[in-house]
Amino acid sequence: MTKLSQHACEACRADAPKVIGQEKQELLSAIPNWEDVMVDGEEQLRRVFTFKNFVEAQAFTNKVADLAEAENHHPAILLEWGKATVRWWTHKIGGLHKNDFIMAARTDELY
Question: What does the record list as coiled-coil region(s) (predicted)?
Answer without folding.
Answer: none
